[in-house]
């Protein structure tokens, strides 16, 4: 019985002490809510590409005999790039030349016969039917010569098409076929970068572009090699694809480079970074965050009564060390950053010297 009485007295004393401590003024650290400009630096890895590219191909199919260029080679307009087997085309050209020669001989004979029949008809030594037949044979010979000459021109073009020439000056990005390979008509053989200059191509998450769409001016992009971040050039956004890759949720963005990066060429990896503005708002450290049944909240110090109240807030986004408040706070309000775990609505507090 004595032990029970002692325990009751001890518990009563502890409750009184706890109540006394709860009523004591608590020292907390607080920070004023200040509106600032939100910004963040984005880092992405992309690829060096050419602003204008062309896939060179033969207009006819066949077996590739030679490819005269390799990756990275610079070519002038009209330079020979590759050849395909031309045995059939050479035979067709010889046949077309023979057909033209035969057509010319037939035309000359028909012309002489038509002139002779016309002369005989004037003298009454032949019939009108013979003269008309000679005239028809001449017309047919003229048509056959025209057809033979057209076939000859077609055969010459087919022979010329066995040699692939550079349509403009540029740089070979990569070979898409090899000698000995059988290709079809219009199958790409080489990929060429036309003209001068470079651009960087990035696959950017759609959410990043959605936030950036609020900015009128595209950000300046800093570009550097993966292994040499100290070497950098600037670029500007040249093109944003209107399509979203459904598999990755990214959008292709092309950045025109103001200068080339030493040691990098087409197809090499490049790192790009840009500062994105997210507008204005109130940024606070993670330690201010508390909660109510409705959602996130923070403790506000009423400087008139030096008591605290719990204020619901709306958070726009998070970072590794800060939260960004969208609504719920006014400029200059004191928000508790340290000591929030010991607070309850109306509790008296005093600000630490650091807060002051």
UniProtKB/TrEMBL annotation:
Signal sequence annotation: 1-22
Protein name: Acriflavin resistance protein
Top-level taxon in the UniProt lineage: Bacteria
Keywords noted in UniProt: Coiled coil, Signal
A GO CC annotation given for this chain: efflux pump complex
Positions in coiled-coil regions: 131-158
UniProt lineage: Bacteria, Pseudomonadati, Pseudomonadota, Alphaproteobacteria, Rhodobacterales
Gene Ontology terms, MF aspect: efflux transmembrane transporter activity
Pfam family, one: RND-MFP_C
Residue ranges of every copy of the Multidrug resistance protein MdtA-like C-terminal permuted SH3 domain listed in the record: 284-341
UniProt keyword Signal, yes or no: yes
Family named by the database record: Belongs to the membrane fusion protein (MFP) (TC 8.A.1) family.
SUPFAM superfamilies to which the protein is assigned, alphabetical: HlyD-like secretion proteins
InterPro entries: MdtA-like_C, RND_pump_MFP
